[in-house]
Design a protein that fits this description.
By secondary structure, the chain is α+β, with helices and mostly antiparallel strands. Helix content is about 50%, strand content about 15%. The protein folds into 2 domains: about 110 residues; about 210 residues, Alpha-Beta Complex (Aminoglycoside 3'-phosphotransferase, Chain: A, domain 2). The chain is globular and about 70 Å long.
Length: about 350
């Protein structure tokens, strides 16, 4: 990014941080930065724009690619979060040199507009406050169950699907065995050997999910912070930047959600999610496969967590090894004997 682009980006961010830039002129604007986006909370609306960055799995350097990503996010999320994802607005430069949201001038950026949801009713906040109750989980199942039942099955060659699993496990192993991360070698070997052995020896359990139409176009990032308890329940932030990352067994995603709830101290939620959605789908994978999913998801979270240390200036660097070890312990608990 050249000096002029940096200057314009700074001006855009200053504009979006100003309450006077929005309809109704809210009293305060809260700015939040994520790995791929910048989010501005203004009154009862959320304004989100993609960073002009290139990562190993996406390239948002072109304005058109950021527009397409906003459009895809709007389209994908309306099913599970009705009334939340509202529209996409161009951010334009006016004739007087200032900026505006919306207008006929040539867009210099695109902004996704969403309805703001109360943070108190997000699942992770309810767990932390000790306010989560079984009917809340039943309501989540009654939202996710029909979604998975209606989701399009994924059709791909079994060999391709098997190779994708091998690749995912190899990536986990490469990260967790990095000497610089100094993770406990015995636990890492137990986990990675268990995952690799399962794919080689028990592949038929995974293959039957594919051949039976049980691998679907799912959510892709089903975490507690993406579930609003409502009522009604809404599930936000369905993954939009890579369709392949939504290719999943619903019970794999549910294992991930259950894992994250357990890490917050609500271990009881995971089994209730499996039970509740099983009724909707008239389907339940064998216990060995569920255990494999839990082991893999915990190992993946350990990998993604420790990878923060690769950043040039990681935030809270002391946090990531501690959290990665916690996920690794959970993965080891679910590891099957080779």
């Amino acid at each position: 990014m050249n000096e002029a682009d940096v200057s314009e980006e700074a001006a855009v961010l200053a504009f979006l941080a100003d309450p006077h830039s929005y309809p109704g002129q809210p009293e305060h604007v809260e700015a939040i930065e994520t790995h791929m986006s910048r989010v501005f909370l203004a009154g009862d609306r959320v304004y989100k724009l993609k960073k002009p960055i290139r990562l190993s799995f996406l390239d948002y350097r072109r304005l058109d690619s950021r527009r397409q990503s906003c459009e895809r996010e709007l389209q994908l999320n309306r099913r599970l979060a009705p009334g939340v994802y509202l529209e996409i607005l161009p951010l334009v430069r006016r004739g007087d040199g200032g900026f505006a949201l919306g207008g006929e001038e040539k867009p210099i950026e695109w902004v996704l507009v969403m309805r703001r949801l109360s943070t108190e009713r997000l699942l992770h906040e309810a767990i932390r406050k000790g306010e989560i109750v079984p009917p809340d989980i039943e309501a989540i199942c009654d939202t996710l169950g029909p979604f998975y039942a209606e989701a399009a099955p994924i059709h791909c060659p079994e060999s391709e699907f098997r190779e994708s699993w091998r690749t995912l496990i190899e990536l986990v192993e490469q990260s967790l065995t990095e000497p610089q991360f100094a993770l406990p070698g015995d636990e890492v070997r137990k986990v990675t050997q268990s995952l690799s052995s399962f794919v080689e020896r028990e592949w038929h359990l995974i293959a039957s999910r594919l051949s039976g139409g049980r691998i679907v176009d799912g959510h892709g990032d089903l975490r507690p912070e993406h579930i609003h308890l409502g009522p009604p329940v809404r599930v936000i932030d369905r993954l939009e930047f890579d369709d392949r990352l939504r290719r999943t067994d619903p019970f794999d995603e549910l294992s991930f959600l259950g894992l994250e709830c357990g890490m917050l101290g609500a271990q009881w939620i995971g089994e209730r999610l499996i039970d509740g959605v099983s009724i909707w789908l008239n389907d339940r994978p064998p216990g060995e496969l569920l255990r494999f999913y839990r082991c893999y998801r915990a190992a993946l979270r350990a990998r993604l967590t420790i990878e923060h240390l690769r950043d040039p200036a990681p935030r809270t660097p002391e946090r990531w090894p501690r959290l990665a070890r916690a996920y690794l312990r959970v993965a080891a608990q679910h590891a099957l004997q080779s």
